[in-house]
Design goal:
By secondary structure, the protein is α/β, with parallel strands linked by helices. Helix content is 66%, strand content 10%. A seven-stranded mixed sheet has the order 7-6-5-8-9-11-10, sandwiched between helices. A four-stranded antiparallel sheet has the order 1-2-3-4, with helices on both faces. β5, α11 and β6 form a beta-alpha-beta unit. It is globular. It starts with a helix and ends with a helix.
């Protein structure tokens, strides 16, 4: 095996490592910032933009040294472990423990800790081509693109469908970096750099020692969760951490506390407010929150059966292991997505109780939309009760909080004759077609049900004045909340900026100015790839958010969606290399195909009435990215290999992808909905087609 082949293998190894690290990094930041999906687009934006800068830097780097390349390759393999450790340790060093940071602090934190590795990834690909070309070997930009895609696909498949199910993040990094580490060592031997080989060997030994030390990995979580961690699991659905202080257990999912044992007040309010309204309690559906005292409170009504739905089996296993969740003859524990279960269920329930966090993310918002409430109504018995709660101060409601409560109230009112708001520790929504009462203690006495909190404190907290104030605050003209036009997410997004006294306008203006200057300076072929990168990542964001709306477990499927796009790039690049002499005609055909696919997506969103198989999203991503992959070799041929187009084309693709990720995932979808985002992407591709025709 010659030196050029070793470098080509290292390119494949870089692809394997980089995609796995990208997936792990996204999941890590999701856990650090409580599962906020906007974090996904911020991570990918920073990653892609800095990678683009790295590719541009390679164009101006004149020193062509195989030894230097070997050192950079090894650093690229080892650095991800340092990156993940730094993210965990510095999160609570930079931010106050428990603080929910604003957009700008989150953005700069992500940029700071993802930029070094992203720069290396962007730099190493075009630099590897410049090294290969010094060896009198015919190796084109298209072939480099294909080699990188082979590595990307392999890394995506390994991480998404194998490693993430069996290993923790540190071990995944170790496994995915193994090929690049091995090739780096072989390169040092091949080049007879024995001192560097010795230093590299020691560094690698330390790398694997820390990567496979379970206690060390657990210790990196102490800053976020404290030292009282009694259980830690990396589930495919999220990070599950159980802490214990004195006798009280607290569950953390993806960085957010979701349940504390022995909270009798919350358990009584959650259960007795809705169930006391019923004359007879037959079947009860509890969506999440079934641990601690909750199930015991339901059992006081002697229901026929309780179905408790919890998404993550790992959470159920941990709760059972520590006695927080005990088996009962009248309780069925169902590991499933709550919305998916309700959509598919043929069973009808006397009461459905939703116990979920605030709808601050797309994953949770999908339980507070018109489409979901319609599904609830379908499986609720006549005269049944549906309930949930939202955080709010019963004595004061901000303008933003009123909008949020009003949007959800108006959405719920579409399907139920009576919607009652009760101000407890949280604001409780009760919905039914039967008459509802606010006198919960009276209802409980009629049923001879004894409680601790409600019997003693209800009348003092739930006063007529508070109930009147709350109901009079609701604005009947507020927009309803839907799956693909998430009004509540829009409200929460605006609240996010108001809370910190900031605005995205200056940031967007600065970014737009820089992109305008960049577009002005690049070739028209590079602009086509810029727009393709923009639209490709924009569509990836569309699929991620749409998938989240329907299935609700994007933490698990991030890798699968990313991999589906990578799968399409490879055959696209191969076909593009074969047909690259067709030039402008090939580019126009790919542009038309992308616009047609976007129009198809728009039609589906506007006529969305049923579930779509997971495979349909992955197939769509594959076909779309195939069209994108066609364009890279064609653009390189149009520029000419003699002009060394690799750095400029990689940079244009990456910068465009970064801009598309930010514009679609962070701004257009949260602020204006998925339909507006699709229309924007169609316009971007239309302009690109015009540029090709006039070129």
């Amino acid at each position: 095996m010659n030196l050029a082949n070793l470098i080509i293998i290292s390119v494949i190894g870089t692809g394997i490592s980089s995609i796995a690290v990208q997936i792990i990094t996204v999941r890590e930041f999701l856990s650090q910032f409580s599962g906020n999906e906007i974090t996904i687009s911020l991570v990918l934006f920073c990653w892609l933009m800095v990678s683009g800068i790295g590719s541009l830097a390679a164009r101006f780097f004149s020193k062509k040294s195989t030894t230097l390349y070997s050192v950079i390759a090894l650093l690229t393999a080892l650095f991800p472990l340092i990156q993940i450790i730094a993210i965990r340790l510095f999160r609570d060093f930079i931010f106050i423990h428990g603080e929910s940071p604003g957009l700008y602090p989150i953005f700069f934190f992500i940029l700071t800790f993802s930029a070094p590795y992203a720069f290396l990834i962007g730099f190493i690909l075009p630099y590897s081509l410049s090294i290969i070309k010094t060896m009198d070997t015919e190796f084109t930009v298209g072939e480099l693109y294909i080699s990188d895609n082979i590595g990307d696909i392999t890394g995506g498949v390994l991480c998404s469908f194998v490693l993430v199910y069996f290993f923790s993040p540190f071990k995944i990094i170790a496994f995915s970096s193994f090929l690049l580490i091995l090739v780096s060592l072989v390169l040092f031997i091949f080049l007879k750099r024995y001192l560097l080989f010795f230093v590299a060997f020691l560094s690698i030994a330390l790398f694997f020692t820390f990567a496979f030390d379970k206690r060390f990995e657990l210790s990196t979580l102490f800053h976020q969760y404290g030292v009282n961690i009694v259980s830690y699991q990396e589930s495919p659905y999220g990070r599950i951490v159980l802490t214990k202080e004195k006798e009280e257990y607290t569950f953390w999912e993806s960085g957010a506390p979701t349940f504390s044992a022995f909270n009798i007040t919350a358990a009584e309010e959650k259960i007795h407010y809705p169930l006391s309204q019923l004359d007879n309690v037959d079947d009860v559906l509890l969506v999440s929150g079934g641990m601690g005292e909750t199930l015991g409170e339901i059992l006081k009504y002697s229901p026929r059966h309780i179905d408790y739905v919890e998404l993550d089996p790992a959470l159920i296993n941990v709760a059972s292991q520590f006695g927080i969740l005990s088996p009962h003859a009248h309780v069925s524990i169902i590991p499933a997505d709550g919305r998916r279960y309700i959509t598919d269920s043929k069973k009808r329930y006397s009461a459905i109780i939703l116990d979920l966090p605030e709808p601050d993310t797309f994953q949770v918002n999908r339980f507070y939309t018109s489409e979901f409430f319609n599904r609830i109504k379908r499986i609720l018995e006549k005269g049944g009760v549906f309930s949930f709660s939202l955080i709010a101060n019963p004595n004061y409601l901000s303008e933003v909080r009123v909008k949020k409560l009003s949007s959800i109230f108006n959405t719920l009112k579409k399907y139920f004759h009576n919607v009652l708001l009760i101000p407890g520790e949280e604001i409780y929504f009760l919905a039914s077609d039967k008459t509802l009462s606010t006198d919960i203690p009276l209802k409980l006495r009629e049923k001879s049900i004894v409680t601790s909190y409600i019997d003693g404190f209800y009348y003092g907290n739930v006063t007529k004045e508070r109930i009147k104030f709350l109901n009079e605050s609701i604005n009947p003209d507020e927009f309803i909340n839907t799956d693909f036009h998430p009004r509540v997410i829009n409200i929460m997004f605006n609240e996010w900026f108001r809370k910190y006294g900031t605005s995205p306008n200056w940031f967007l203006a600065g970014l737009f100015g820089l992109l305008a200057c960049y577009i002005f300076l690049i070739r028209k072929e590079e602009y086509v790839l810029f727009s393709t990168g923009f639209v490709s990542m924009g569509v990836e964001m569309l699929i991620l958010f749409s998938f989240q709306v329907i299935y609700g477990y994007i933490y698990l499927k991030i890798g699968a969606v990313i991999t589906s796009f990578l799968f399409g790039l490879l055959p696209g690049a191969i076909l593009g290399s074969r047909w690259k002499n067709k030039g402008k005609g090939m580019l126009i055909g790919a542009e038309a195909g992308m616009i047609l696919l976007l129009l198809t997506y728009l039609i589906w969103v506007n006529s969305y009435h049923s579930m779509v198989p997971e495979f349909a999203f992955l197939l769509y991503g594959f076909i779309f990215s195939l069209l994108c992959g066609l364009q890279f070799p064609v653009a390189a041929e149009m520029i000419g290999e003699e002009k060394s187009p690799a750095a400029g084309l990689f940079a244009a693709d990456l910068v465009g992808a970064g801009a598309g990720t930010l514009a679609i995932g962070t701004l257009l979808i949260p602020l204006f909905g998925i339909q507006a985002a699709i229309i924007a992407l169609i316009l971007i591709k239309t302009v690109s087609g015009i540029v090709i025709l006039k070129g």
